[in-house]
């Protein structure tokens, strides 16, 4: 909670974008001014809520078009508000609707944080705005104006674009900068593991519909594939398995190449982020050239990696003058399936996978539905006319995981209380009319949009103040009831925290499952690379197979790391898996993945057209047939070993060790990099078995 409190108050200037905040606030101002001029204060409040929540959706981290996010959010808000209006007079029916809607909002987290946040807003809309209209016709008017607020936000995004393709540019630039930072760190730590998250985000950003692909700037096409190739070559160049000693002129040459590569990648990242032409320093390009007297690196994997790095740099420089036309066809098909006619089928399949009691999303949906109904009943039982504020606070605080609910939720609760109190004090001192209250609300929403990517406590304070000022437009005397609102906020926050304690969804019991998934992915990747190494006739399918296996490793590793981060803050411990054991297993799998990646960088299809360069001085790669037999044994042992880890048993790598011994005894290439990689991978998996040593029988869930 201490860390969450500090993070909640942190305001990063680099994250502030006044133009985006001004555009979002302008959307609220336009719809608010129109409804105040044409209709009543109650209608103005509804429309402003719609514009506000639609604007919130467009600020979430998403690569979907911002106008589409605004319209989708407005549609959900409008429907929820109208249904709430219709059933508001019938308490049992309204509570049933509220429970069903809250359950759906909780299940929306299946598709990510953006749908989850928007779903929570639809529940909040149902709670707040139903107090305003009196008839079904008025309810329809309010619902229509809520939708109109989203339409206005979407229209402003189209008319006044700010940084077109900005999210995609940032994701790609972060990936390039991450690889550049990796190059610099390898100078001091040659076996440093690569953090795959920036490249995973860049891959997500590259998933486009056919229409988006036609409009995408040329600069955003190709650099991600280039970053992937840089990553593999940099790791191969720095790794001691490449044959370069830790000290001496060869290592200094490697350090110079790594520094120059980082400089080039940084220049490209800055250019992509700003939409400019990359300007690469001449000093870096001078280092990334083959010396006239030949390379100082000895023959072997390191020299091959250095030559490939030089060729990659030439490609990066050429891309500065013209786009690299390398597309991600799989990404386009992925998005087409989800945005086309198959979207319902894909969504239903995803929800169906989460409909199990051990799913954090499903438990969150059940918990949210139950506590929302309890909060609604408690609000009705209290003498206050504003008891709905309890349920509104519950929606704000409750999240699927423990860290977000207890740590950040408490910080959000504090921020909401501060915002409500501050806004109440302002109202008490200024006694505003309708238009002055509208002005205060616009100031609050501008600050909220401006600070939305920074501290969530500050953002919650702005949101609380916005609601106070906005409902003040409708004539509610907030200046006299602020203490009551604060009390109801605290009650709602307490209910949310208690509900999580009574029905938690811990990440800690999932540690073994995530570790088993990562182990299976690394073993499959290593077996795939070894199989490709043994194939004397590689083809495009070979490269695609290795690439997909690598992506599976990255996804499994990210899930493991996210689970360990959340589990570290939970007041429970994994049965049979201590933190030390988890850390040892993590390090071992990182080593195995790095070794397999090193071998992948030596494959013929990774060399590309520059592998047979005139100045390479290298012969074609010698293939070792023993690698294929070892890969088959490793692949067969991967899933049983992973299942043993999931069930709390000790993985058995005996057959893999025996196969490695046969390969070592019969090979004609005892110094081949494939054999050394296989030895390193096997040792790493044995270390995982030692770290996760468990019972002979499966562990209970």
From TrEMBL:
Highest taxon listed in the record's lineage: Bacteria
Keyword Transmembrane attached: yes
Domain Integral membrane bound transporter intervals: 376-498
Keyword terms, alphabetized: Cell membrane, Membrane, Transmembrane, Transmembrane helix
Protein location: Cell membrane
Record's bilayer topology term: Multi-pass membrane protein
Keyword Glycoprotein: no
Predominant location: membrane
A matching Pfam family: FUSC_2
GO cellular component, one term: plasma membrane
PANTHER family: MULTIDRUG RESISTANCE PROTEIN MDTO (PTHR30509:SF9), P-HYDROXYBENZOIC ACID EFFLUX PUMP SUBUNIT-RELATED (PTHR30509)
Record-given protein name: FUSC family protein
Organism field: Streptomyces tardus
